[in-house]
Amino acid sequence: MNNLSSGQIAELFGLQKSKLRYYINKGLLSPRVDEENGYYLFDESDIYRLYQLIIFRKIGFSISDIKASQAVDDLMPLLHKSKQMLQANIDELISLQKLTNKIIDSHDSSQLDDVYFVAHADRYFKKLPQDMVTNGEINYLSAIKQKQFKIDQPYFIQSNEAQVDVCYASQVSDYDHVYLAGNYACINFLVADEVALDLKISQFLEDPLFQLTQSKDKQILVYENVTRSLAYNSGLVYTVEVCV
């Protein structure tokens, strides 16, 4: 085949000519130089080498990896290593995609400040030890040692006006609070602080429906909806649930 100029080969692969010069300066390409005008000329082996270089860069090889690969004939060990790295990247992207979908689905499932109803099975909650909670504030470094505690969703269970327990989801074999199966009225509040949250909860519980259906000692379940909160910068989203 005829030799190609820098401009022609750049057009062939959709590259900037500066990128070609970069690869040449790094010693990854060694095209012939036209003695008359000093222009680079690329033959078929140069085109193959550039194609390999482009593919390897897309795979994730570094410049130093590619340069080292040119000194050996069998590239399979390097390719197997890259296959593992690509799979790890794919797994991470899938995980991030699931998280993004979860945030969007949580946001779209209901409007803020609108009541919706959910049917729940029995749920069990365990109180965090007292040394992990100070004035209602969680010591996360200590709390995370509890295997079942999830940093993205602590539960605040209000047994009565004077008692609020910080809990995590547990099992029937070990619990301090149980929420029996039933229909629950739920609402999501976006608030900047606890004062605003307490006001929102009070207003929510003043609904005549709850005045008729709940006893004074009825438990209220409040938890930080961290997943949904990721869609906002102005505060945290809290979910409040009351059995009806």
From TrEMBL:
Pfam families: MerR_1. Gene3D superfamilies: 1.10.1660.10. This is MerR family transcriptional regulator. The keyword Transcription regulation applies. Residues 3-72 form the HTH merR-type domain. It comes from Pseudolactococcus carnosus. Keywords: DNA-binding, Transcription, Transcription regulation. InterPro entries: DNA-bd_dom_put_sf, MerR-type_HTH_dom, MerR_fam. The keyword Transcription applies.
